[in-house]
Design goal:
heterodimer; A: 497 residues; mainly alpha; two-stranded antiparallel ribbon; 10 strands; globular; B: 346 residues; two-stranded antiparallel sheet
């Protein structure tokens, strides 16, 4: 109080403290220290720009690009088959509604395919732009799935051009076959890409030699062993089914919603075809998920432990429902434990021991919260869809219950379930990709060692984020415009019989 | 011949090189023309704008995605077959490559949205604006990226950010090559579109554009040689010293009058073949001058023979490309037969 009338005097130590606090606030860990996502809390090094570290920016850009592309890839895999079903029915029955439906769906597919094709092209460059050290060594090893993927993608683009513009130029049967080729090459292309991803989770087919200077030398490359690595079957199966499940439920949900607004033959038939595909996929998916979980328990026990928040290796391992894993105290808060179920799911025996996180060095753990939460979300969405799918098939199977298919409450449930498949796809992708961290090639190369030396990666990340945000909005808007104007373009959408 | 076939290189390497060259050629010839068509939308003139735009949409619609795939194939061949090249380029040319990618995304989506939007309203103007802008932007950065491989500026251990990631491409030669690429693609598009229009007035307007495109391409080509001198790339000397390259250049120039005759006389496929041959000759000349270097580097160039993947990888890549082309080429031929058969004269 000695300086009356003036500003409060600050000691030098105050000045230094504020100075330090200012710079501390530029440090991203300070920003992110309250984040629920531990990936934002991990320790980093090197350059900062706009408060973001390069490794973080690169990982976010990759996650964003894949998370964006996967939606379009999934639709591109499954949608041609929905079109083929309705196209087939049109050729066989000549009913207007199936012609309308095929045309209307194909216009949607054109929008999705174009967006998927360009975002996929971007990804093939981003692998090098962000992770050159990875591509330098991995490129020749996993070249095989990528070269086949290129071929399948090419065929898909050619067939799609023929299909979309071939209505008056191709014979109906030839046109139908071309449409099926779009679907087959789309599915194959998805399978090949997941083969490459499976290799990152379960590397095989090479010798990795690090010399005294730390220089990596790859030898004895066996492209076949790399492509058909131990994880390829289970992962591609799970992904392919998920594409049909997500697309089936997504499309069915949209048409269910339109049925609730104003019923028409158009929306009714669309709803039935899409939900049939989605329902079958939703019932198969738990089986493929079980196969994949058992496989993961052997190949990547650490990932399985992170998915389940399972810390202590023990027989009769419990399944944890919900809960918040805490990496510091190595416990799960607020979770519901069901004894023995995890052992049964992982090894088919309630008494089998399941490896826990505590068996692995702390620095090799993936971020626990995102993996565990995403896994729970995926399971919850999958269960909801399987339930709805079973209900639908039951309605179809029992003649007395058949009218319930178009019951308003059921339509409402389906409309609400529209996004579940896509949420599950994204969540599953988080499980497998974040669950692989800190490795880019599991057990071989760390993600941070693959990073490009170019600093300032926050800039491309923010650019891509802006572009994909705009695209997401525009595609959604186009889809809404497309769906809400079907009555003007397609007679069967006005037909309420 | 030992220069072309050094001892000990696997046969598969030559298959992969051939596919890389063919992919680049076809990407320029087909994918390039799709960008050029977008550039041409800047020069539609006052009359019959909508009719010209429809010609462009009808020509590109069924094929642009297939044409775009040659770029994807090139990238796959690079990262599987020449990982050191792919990695080096990705690191030092991050900025122009990202610029190109954003252009690829904007061009493909805006073109598709314009055609498939269920309601045709004011939004069409926005799609067109994005489509035209990205059609100039994308080939420009493609050319810049290709050009940056030549002056030897890709530095693996840069002293500064600018030295590592900006200087390699922000210099006369790459920028001039970017401009040249835009002009070349526009010229190609105009030549192709002559045959896509079914009335005489539209054909004449595209012939005019093709002539202006040819003039612009020749001028831009001259600028590339001048820029090369400014950039310390002895391009003129190397061209003159290489017989294949000078011959290619001369034949390209001699072909221009024939092209004009073909366009005016309405020999559509002859005109297209001549323009395609010119692109092939330009690429051949460039390839011959550069051979076997892919990227000029300060500490030792990356070449076709020292930067390739191990033999096992090359074998499977060559196999995949050969089998793939058995599937792709007939399909592609069919696609073009269905949509590019000569329009009936009205």
């Amino acid at each position: 109080m000695g300086n009356a009338g003036g500003r409060p005097k600050r000691s030098d130590s105050h000045v230094i403290l504020h100075f330090l606090l200012f710079f501390r606030s530029l440090y991203p860990q300070f920003f992110f220290s309250y984040s629920p996502f531990p990936i934002l809390n991990s320790p980093f090094s090197s350059t900062y720009l706009w408060g973001m570290e390069d490794l973080l920016a690169a990982r976010l850009q990759m996650a964003l690009s894949l998370g964006f592309h996967i939606i379009f890839a999934v639709i591109g895999m499954a949608m041609p088959f929905l079109m083929a079903i309705s196209h087939w029915r049109w050729i066989r029955t000549g009913k207007q509604v199936y012609f309308d439906l095929t045309k209307a769906w194909s216009r949607g597919v054109a929008i999705f395919f174009a967006t998927g094709a360009v975002s996929g092209t971007a990804l093939s460059f981003e692998l090098g732009l962000l992770w050159p050290e990875f591509m330098l060594h991995a490129g020749p090893i996993i070249g095989m799935p990528f070269s086949w993927e290129g071929t399948a993608f090419f065929i898909e683009a050619i067939a799609l051009g023929l299909f979309l513009y071939g209505w008056n130029r191709l014979k109906p049967w030839v046109h139908w076959v071309v449409g099926v080729v779009v679907g087959i090459s789309g599915v194959l292309s998805g399978i090949f890409v997941v083969c490459a991803n499976a290799w990152m989770n379960s590397p095989a087919g090479f010798d990795w030699i690090v010399d005294a200077a730390g220089k990596v030398q790859v030898s004895n490359v066996d492209p076949f062993a790399a492509m058909f690595n131990p994880a390829w079957k289970t992962m591609t199966l799970h992904m392919t089914i998920s594409a049909f499940q997500a697309t089936g439920f997504g499309v069915a949900g949209v048409h269910a919603f339109m049925m609730l607004r104003k019923p028409s033959v158009f929306h009714r038939e669309a709803f039935k075809i899409a939900l049939a595909v989605g329902a079958i996929a939703a019932l198969l998916q738990p089986l493929s998920g079980d196969i994949l979980a058992k496989d993961t328990a052997v190949r990547q026990p650490l990932k399985l432990a992170a998915m389940e928040s399972h810390f202590e290796t023990a027989p009769r391992a419990p399944l944890v429902l919900g809960g918040i894993p805490d990496a510091e105290t190595r416990t799960v808060d607020y979770g519901l434990e069901i004894p023995g179920v995890l052992s049964f799911l992982a090894h088919g025996n309630v008494n089998a021991p399941v490896k826990g996180l505590n068996d692995f060095p702390r620095e090799e753990w993936p971020p626990l919260k995102p993996v565990h939460f995403a896994f729970q979300i995926m399971i919850a969405c999958g269960m909801a869809m399987a339930g709805l799918g079973a209900l639908y098939l039951l309605f179809l199977a029992v003649p007395r219950l058949r009218p319930l298919v178009l019951h308003r409450r059921f339509l409402w449930l389906c409309a609400l379930a529209a996004p579940l498949g896509f949420i599950a796809v994204e969540a599953g992708w988080v499980v497998t990709e974040v669950g692989r961290q800190p490795w880019i090639i599991y057990g071989i190369m760390k993600t941070r060692d693959a990073l490009t030396p170019m600093p300032g990666l926050a800039v491309p990340f923010l650019l891509f984020m802006a572009v994909y945000a705009v695209l997401a909005v525009v595609v959604t808007w186009l889809l809404i415009r497309h769906i809400t104007t079907v009555e003007q373009h397609y007679p069967s959408a006005r037909d309420q019989s | 011949m030992t220069q072309f076939f050094p001892a000990g290189e696997p046969f598969a390497l030559y298959v992969v090189i051939a596919f890389l060259g063919v992919s680049l050629f076809l990407y320029c010839l087909l994918g390039g023309a799709d960008f050029g068509a977008g550039v041409l939308e800047l020069y539609l003139g006052k009359e019959r704008r909508q009719a010209q735009r429809q010609v462009i949409e009808k020509a590109m619609g069924p094929v642009w995605e297939a044409n775009h795939m040659w770029l994807v194939l090139m990238v796959v061949i690079l990262f599987v077959g020449f990982p050191a090249v792919y990695t080096r380029v990705s690191i030092n040319l991050h900025i122009p490559l990202t610029a190109m990618l954003l252009g690829v995304i904007a061009r493909g989506t805006s073109f598709t949205f314009r055609h498939y939007d269920a309601v045709k309203d004011g939004s069409q103007r926005a799609y067109t604006a994005f489509f035209v802008f990205s059609s100039v932007w994308t080939p420009f950065f493609l050319g810049v990226t290709m050009g940056a491989l030549v002056p030897g500026g890709l530095n693996p251990a840069p002293a500064s950010y600018a030295a590592g990631y900006v200087d390699p491409w922000l210099r006369p030669f790459p920028l001039a090559l970017g401009a040249f690429t835009v002009c070349l693609f526009t010229f190609l598009a105009a030549v192709y579109l002559v045959g896509e229009s079914d009335d005489a007035a539209l054909r004449r307007s595209f012939i005019r554009k093709a002539v202006w495109g040819a003039v612009a391409t020749v001028l831009a080509g001259a600028v590339v040689f001048v820029a090369a001198e400014f950039d310390g790339v002895p391009l003129v000397r190397e061209f003159l010293a290489t017989r294949t390259a000078t011959t290619a250049m001369m034949v390209t120039s001699v072909l221009f009058p024939w092209l004009l005759i073909a366009l005016v006389r309405d020999w559509i496929w002859t005109g297209r073949a001549i323009a395609g041959l010119q692109v092939a000759l330009v690429l051949l000349g460039w390839f011959r001058v550069q051979f076997p270097v892919l990227v000029n580097m300060p500490g030792g160039d990356l070449t076709l023979f020292n930067a390739h993947a191990p033999e096992a990888t090359l074998n499977q890549l060559a196999g995949a490309l050969l089998v793939g082309s058995i599937l792709i080429l007939p399909a592609l031929a069919w696609l073009f037969r269905v949509f590019k058969a000569r329009p009936k004269d009205s």
